[in-house]
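step=predict obj=C-type cytochrome n=181
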Amino acid sequence: MKLPRSLVLILLFAALPATLCAAWITDIVVMSSKGAGAVNFSHYTHLEAVGNNCPSCHNGIFHIRPEKNPVATMKDMAEGKSCGACHNGQKAFSVKEGCSSCHPTRDIVFKNADAGDITFSHEAHTGMFGCSECHPDLFLPGPGNQRRTMQEMEQGDSCGACHDGNAAFSVKEDCENCHQM
Ligand code: HEC
Ligand code: HEC
Ligand code: HEC
Ligand code: HEC
Ligand code: HEC
Ligand code: HEC
């Protein structure tokens, strides 16, 4: 009888001491989503947290072949799928909070030689808005964004979607609120 390759691997994991496996598996696996960019999952941290036990995740929660894992939304996770199987506030911190533990964000600098560089602070904005207010419709959470002119912003693109003098200070004034002059 010929066993599927993935089953052979799992049987192998079960038979070998997991610490042996841990030395050759990739520590960081990257899962990316359109709405929130890349999430780095650490095997080593988790092997410590769940007691060197591969079958606690494979293949019940995650298949070891990434293409076999359906993309999960945060809603799926809140219902116990994917990371949410453990990150439910009981086995581990909940997916409903601590967003930045899994989705670290940083300050973004837009270089501008003429008008001065602009620093966008995630920290200042994520206190007021969820990721989906901006991603992926206004800005892709990663490379590939089209550069915008101030004129386009005045018409409601990019920062101008909120910085219209109504929801937030306007792109038509207070240039130095954004540009380091
Ligand atoms: C706490 C959960 C968890 C545990 C425990 C775990 N893994 Fe994973 N593993 C994952 C996740 C999440 C992925 C990424 C899945 C994806 O990309 O869809 C992954 C991916 C993999 C991959 C594919 C990596 C790649 O680069 O494509 C292999 C191989 C793997 N794990 C082996 C192991 C082995 C061997 C063990 C035990 C020593 C183990 N895993 C323990 C969660 C876990
Ligand atoms: C335990 C880790 C973890 C926590 C905590 C977490 N996320 Fe996620 N999130 C992920 C992973 C992993 C993905 C990608 C899943 C995939 O590709 O299958 C994701 C995907 C997303 C997405 C894109 C999919 C969707 O639901 O639209 C958004 C937006 C998002 N997260 C926002 C958040 C916010 C906001 C919080 C806090 C309330 C949060 N996440 C907390 C791990 C986490
Ligand atoms: C089998 C259970 C299990 C699954 C599935 C799981 N985790 Fe965890 N995770 C834990 C435990 C246990 C801890 C440690 C306790 C805590 O921090 O609450 C932890 C801790 C973490 C931490 C904090 C540790 C650190 O080094 O920063 C992050 C980040 C994290 N998990 C991300 C994820 C992501 C992303 C996924 C899904 C791709 C995931 N986890 C799936 C059990 C799990
Ligand atoms: C008020 C709008 C706004 C909100 C809310 C927001 N972001 Fe962003 N994000 C941006 C902008 C602007 C960029 C930079 C786009 C560019 O490079 O052109 C960015 C870039 C990113 C990037 C790519 C960073 C890099 O290193 O290149 C990631 C990942 C990201 N955001 C994740 C998140 C997550 C996760 C949340 C929610 C916790 C979030 N963002 C909330 C506006 C926002
Ligand atoms: C809400 C923040 C914000 C305010 C306020 C703002 N800008 Fe900008 N500006 C930006 C960002 C971000 C970019 C870069 C956009 C990109 O690369 O996609 C930019 C780009 C520019 C550019 C280069 C693109 C172009 O339109 O030629 C000039 C010049 C400029 N700003 C001048 C100004 C002046 C003058 C003011 C005041 C009347 C101003 N900006 C107010 C955020 C702002
Ligand atoms: C989803 C709406 C939204 C978007 C998109 C947005 N902002 Fe804001 N921003 C706000 C609000 C609301 C405030 C706080 C109210 C105010 O200061 O008028 C704020 C405050 C700020 C501040 C002052 C707080 C701080 O960081 O010190 C700066 C600077 C800023 N935004 C820059 C930007 C830039 C640059 C962009 C585009 C890359 C941008 N914002 C996109 C809503 C937004």
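step=describe
The mean pLDDT is 89.
step=end
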